[in-house]
Amino acid sequence: MSSEQLHIKTPLLESHPLSKHAGFKVWLKLENTQPTSTFKIRGIGNLCQKVAKAGCKQIVCSSGGNAGLAAAYAGRRLGVPATIIVPETTPQFTVERLREEGATVEVYGKVWDEANEKAMKLASQPDHVLVHPFDHPDIWEGHGTMIVEISEEIAKPDVVIASVGGGGLMCGVINGLWRVGWKDVPVIAMETKGCDSFNAAVQAGKLVTLPAITSIANCLGSTTVCSKVLQYHTEGLHAIHSELVSDTQAISACLKFTGTSWTELCTVMFSGRSRKYSN
Q1: For residue 128, what are the contacts with CB-CB under 8 A and spacing of at least 6?
Q2: Among positive and negative, which fits the CA dihedral 151, 154, 158, 159?
Q3: Strands, DSSP E only, in 53-186?
Q4: Which strands form 82-86's sheet, in the order they lie side by side?
Q5: Residue pLDDT, tens place only, 118-135
């Protein structure tokens, strides 16, 4: 079993195009350079290392993709078998990627919450441990290392911007801000409409379960956000500003970021369909 951390220190780069557009410096933490291509390995890896050290014989994780991939990767590195339960919305290439990491994959339920119920039942067996994709203190502790790394490279920022699915990243960001003495740095929590369980909870002042995830960002979505991130907001423990955008706005921002136009995107999509049907 590996005793080394499973994540890497990722680059922190100032984005000239975004800084020019915003009118102030914008720094990007490039978590896409992690071994599993997302920040998830920080927290999931931290939790998996702890349960493996405690004698876990089987990791069980429910995920729409990224958390499951992190759990599968961690299991392989630690020598602990992993079973990943994914909802039906999970792309086939993600399922195949999970299997490439040596994980057993089961497809269950229309949304993540249903897959999670299945995972909880499976994890009730002896020597099995449920690795939640976002709701666990060890996960937040691991995700917090992003902020620790940032504090080693730049002065205190004016604000941190992050997306919210179930709330694990947001809890990790706040965990990290507190660890480095940046409690006064506010956080902007971004969500797309139809995938906005945190915003709904903020508006209601209590946890809200969405009837369905209707945003195209379905892998990001959890119908209910974790209670800890709402507690930070409702009890005034940390300044969190909830912001919503439409799917169209989110796509437009991604295209602007990559320098691609809607016309170019549609041309590529049409070209792809043409090749598909010509074969």
Answers
A1: 56, 57, 58, 59, 60, 122
A2: negative
A3: 58-62, 82-86, 104-107, 128-130, 160-163
A4: 104-107, 82-86, 58-62, 128-130
A5: 999 999 999 999 999 999
Token output for 11? 């680059």
Q: Which structure tokens are listed for 26?
A: 């914008």
pLDDT at 265: 52
DSSP 8-state class, residue 102? T
Residue showing tokens 């702890």: 50
Residue 52 corresponds to which tokens in the numbers above? 């493996």
* pTM listed for this prediction: 0.89
Residue 279 — very low, low, confident or very high, per pLDDT cuts 50/70/90?
very low
Tokens standing for residue 78: 């630690």
DSSP letter for each residue of 127-142: TEEE--SS-SHHHHHH
